[in-house]
TrEMBL record:
Keywords: Heme, Iron, Metal-binding, Monooxygenase, Oxidoreductase. The keyword Ribonucleoprotein does not apply. It comes from the Bacteria. Pfam families: p450 (PF00067). Belongs to the cytochrome P450 family. PANTHER family: CYTOCHROME P450 YJIB-RELATED (PTHR46696:SF1), P450, PUTATIVE (EUROFUNG)-RELATED (PTHR46696). Gene3D superfamilies: Cytochrome P450. GO terms for molecular function: heme binding; iron ion binding; monooxygenase activity; oxidoreductase activity, acting on paired donors, with incorporation or reduction of molecular oxygen. CDD domains: CYP107-like (cd11029). This is Cytochrome P450.
């Protein structure tokens, strides 16, 4: 799963899995490496799995007796890889800036960033096509999370280059990928070191202060947290915005509803959630490890095996969603799993929803004639497992 054939039509594969192999064994093809997992594709099973105490995140990636190199250990020490008390403690240390109250006042900042970005792109619509993903969605979302976490101007370009290289490592060699990981860890370490001497009004400074106040947050945890928040904060969100624009341009009737009621906040909110259901940027969570043999659908998942809930397949389960293949921005209720479920439910969901809503409002408000610059059949997804990402989204601002 993850190759070109899969990327050509993911929903068809999701349907097949749900119907014929609700607990199926697949190979995830990450390019530089591959991984065998048991994949769960029905909604009820995914939800059950995400709260099943027999499945843990932390043992993943560490086969008994195998020494994991420091840089790999670090990028695998993110919040979504922790369990139990350790997970609760770390999550509570970083949760404060992500509460709905703290987020709403960032809306104005997102609006200004989006407007400035469009100004810089030649917002009068006379220019040629732009790549909405790279030229608009990425810079806006990266600036928001970098400001919040505390990535200073001097580290911003290096950090982003590291993440981009890490992601593009999916199609490269294992050696290249490892080199990118090492580089990214070095950049993050520099950033944390800088904050120790130059504190600011940001999340990293807050974490350093918590560490100094005696909360057990060791250096590895601190670096892993910074790396994961910045990465999780924009890699996902800029794809959410891009996927939303693609889905809306592909469904003029739905875009028409928003154009007819541009100030209807509730409709915009519901539209963003429908995108998270229909084209979720993250299509599966991190695989969890079975800590004992688990009987499921007449099969035994052996202790030690990796199990993956396929959120994108659950999101189109006809047992839960009426006409699941239909993109419907008024869908209600919409209990999708695009932001996960259970204790690992996305920490940044409220921030991401707000960013997407405001950025899209600004985009469609400023450019009523926005249109695709290529035929819709030419829009291609990247052949990556566990992501719904367009290679690019060429549009004419109009
Ligand atoms: C989980 C941060 C945007 C989907 C998480 C976690 C963090 C995080 C820290 C791990 C939580 C835990 O394990 O306790 C953020 C931030 C975002 C953001 C800061 C933006 C500001 C998004 C977006 C999506 C998304 C746009 C997709 C629509 C998910 C999913 C999980 C998750 C599916 C669960 C992963 C799992 O169970 O392994 N997010 N996220 N996130 N996030 Fe986000």
């Amino acid at each position: 799963m993850g190759g070109a054939e899969f990327a050509a039509d993911p929903p068809a594969h999701y349907t097949w899995l749900r119907e014929h192999a609700p607990l199926g064994q697949v190979r995830l093809d990450f390019g530089a490496f591959a991984q065998d997992v048991w994949v769960v594709s029905r909604y009820a099973d995914c939800k059950a799995l995400l709260t099943d105490p027999r499945l843990l995140r932390s043992p993943y990636g560490a086969p008994p007796g195998v020494e994991i190199p420091e840089h790999i250990r670090l990028v695998s020490s993110t919040l979504d890889m922790k369990d139990g008390d350790e997970h609760r403690r770390l999550r509570s240390l970083v949760a404060a800036p992500f509460t709905p109250k703290r987020i709403e006042h960032l809306g104005e900042q997102v609006r200004v960033l989006a407007e400035r970005r469009l100004d810089a792109l030649g917002g009068d619509g006379d220019g040629g096509p732009i790549d909405l993903r790279q030229d608009f969605a990425l810079p806006v979302t990266y600036t928001v999370i970098a400001d919040l976490v505390g990535v200073g101007e001097q580290d911003r370009v290096r950090f982003q280059q590291g993440v981009t290289a890490l992601m593009s490592g999916f199609s490269g060699s294992r050696e290249d990928w490892e080199a990118h990981v090492r580089d990214l860890v070095a950049v993050t370490r520099d950033l944390v070191a800088r904050k120790r001497t130059e504190p600011g009004d940001d999340l990293v400074t807050g974490l350093i202060e918590a560490e100094e106040a005696g909360d057990r947050l060791d250096d590895t945890e601190l670096v892993a947290m910074v790396f994961s928040l910045v990465t999780a904060g924009y890699e996902t969100t800029y794809n959410l915005i891009t996927n939303a624009a693609a889905a809306l341009l592909d469904h003029p009737d739905q875009l028409g509803l928003l154009r007819a009621a541009p100030d209807d906040e509730a409709l915009w909110r519901s539209a963003v959630d429908e995108v998270a259901r229909y084209l979720p940027p993250i299509t599966g969570t991190r695989p969890a490890t079975a800590v004992e043999d688990i009987e499921w659908h007449g099969q035994t998942v052996p202790a030690g095996a990796s199990v993956l809930p396929l959120l994108a397949a659950a999101n189109r389960d006809p047992d839960v969603f009426e006409e699941p293949e239909r993109f419907d921005i008024t869908r209600s209720p919409n209990p999708h799993l695009g932001f996960g479920h259970g204790v690992h439910f996305c920490l940044g969901a409220n921030l991401a929803r707000m960013e997407a809503r405001v950025a899209l409002q600004v985009l469609f408000e400023r450019h009523p004639g926005l249109s695709l610059a290529v035929d819709r059949t030419e829009l291609a997804l990247e052949p990556m497992p566990l992501w719904t990402r367009f290679r690019e989204l060429p549009v004419v601002l109009g």
